[in-house]
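From the shared-data thread, chain only:
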Amino acid sequence: MNTSRLALPAENGPERWSWPIIPDHYDTAVEVRPAEAVAVSELGVRNLRRLKDHDPSAVGWRVIHRLLVPLEAVNAALDSPPTPHRRRAMLDVIAVLLTRCAETGRTFWGWTPQEWIHLLGRNQSEFHEHAPGWVNDEVRPYLAAHAYLLGSFNEFHRLGSFQRLTLSWRVFGRGLVTSEIARIRAVLASWGYQLGRDDYTLLPMVVCQLLLLNRSPHLEDLDPRCSTGSGARRCWPAHSATPCTPHSGRLPNSDSVILRSPSPAASRHGRPAARRRGNNGSIAGTPPLRSLRASAAPCAPPSSGWAGG
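Structure, as tokens:
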């Protein structure tokens, strides 16, 4: 077997991405204060959505300042096309979250994954069942970004057919995500795999799933300890007390295998030639393609001290 490390091309371009929302910079008290609930109610939908004739000087804005600031910070950190309907969706997300805080009496800082799922819905139809009537389809992807950055929500496998690529673009930046995917494509293309072709759509979905679970867009941050063992399956957040460490050679995946380069023998179609299959169903000497598919659930840390969301 010809085992080799995943030698990725050098990373060039943008500076390293860092988590944009630091809870210590905000008032993260979970209980909504009575004055805040009253202010949300008195501001009303027109103000909360900041429609054309809203009142930016209303007293209520000052009362809910501590809730508004982190929501605005998330929107400011997103890589979103500057179009009117995208801007409308981003404003409406804030209105939805403020309304939900007032309804539940709890701020988004303390919401459980199940509470985020209730708000996001397991599909678009279920999302509209729980959302106000004025919310349109564009709001849900931005709501997922807020859940991810504010609540460390990563159970995207419970949201149905959800666009992880688009979410990754929004959160990490389209240019950075595209460049990281291109680095992997270059390696796979050199091995003769179709996954390395620009028109092969599976790879971006898989890579984005891994990046989101690992809470970092940088391939060097993928943690070799991530695996699908018999225990609970989670990934170590990049901003946790035990951050992910750079490592080349092993990618977290459904089989936790080291990617293996194929032998020089290849078929006329440019793919590695068929050889004896191993116990895991892969062709000996080649990276099992199913190992490149991200598991639906996150990966497992090596110990039980994980404190992520």
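The longest helix spans residues 84-104.
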